Amino acid sequence: MYLDHYGLREAPFRLTPLTDFFFTGARRGATVEAVIYAVLHDEGIIRVSGEVGTGKTMLSRVLIDRFPDDIDTLYCANPTLEPEELLRALATDLGLSLPEARAGALLGAIQTALIERHAAGRRVVVLIDEAHAMPKASLEQIRLLSNLETGRH
Fold first, then answer.
1. Fewest CB within 10 A of the end CB: N or C in the chain?
2. By the 8 A CB rule, do 2 and 8 touch?
3. pTM here?
4. How many domains does the chain have?
């Protein structure tokens, strides 16, 4: 109904944001550029926060679209994962098949995969939507993975 009234070709508001409708005003475009810059300069953990409905999920999707080709993006949309579930999800996103592995083995395999990708000239970025809702132990797993950056891996 409102499509015809406003002359729209498709519905602009959906449950899953469409990056075609990304609005770069109100510093959103600058935020995208700042995050890309930080990733390209190995700045480590980056936090983007904002009120509900300000476009954080859209920002994540825009970043995935705009990161250079040498960046592999792991996207976690479920922040309630317990540590082992989180590691299993990251391992799966990295293409690792470790269905029976425990947390320690998963962490080791992920670290090895990250080091191998770095050696091949690739960067890996983990985007976590709604990270504030993550269990503290899961956030600790992310911190442990970020320790790789201190060795320039």
1. N
2. yes
3. 0.81
4. 1
- Pick from 147, 141, 146: nearest CA to 103: 141
Whether residue 6 is contained in a domain is answered as no
Q: Is residue 124 one of the residues assigned to a domain?
A: yes
CB atoms < 10 A from the CB of 77, how many?
13
CA 71 and chain centroid, separation: 11
In this structure, is residue 145 part of a structural domain? yes
Structure tokens given for 42: 């190995």
Express each pLDDT in 18-43 by its tens digit.
888 788 888 888 999 999 999 999 88
Q: How far is CA 138 from CA 15, 68, 93, 131, 134, in A?
A: 26, 28, 17, 10, 6
4 belongs to a structural domain: no
Q: At how many degrees (to 10) do helices 83-93 and 103-119 cross?
A: 30
Q: List, in order, residues 6 or more apart from 106 with CB less than 8 Å away.
A: 84, 87, 88, 91, 98
Nearest alpha-carbon partner for 28 in 54, 52, 64, 51: 54
For residue 91, give its domain range.
Answer: 12-151
Query: What share of the chain has pLDDT > 90, as a percent?
Result: 49
In the structure, what pLDDT confidence band is assigned to residue 149 with cuts at 50, 70 and 90? low
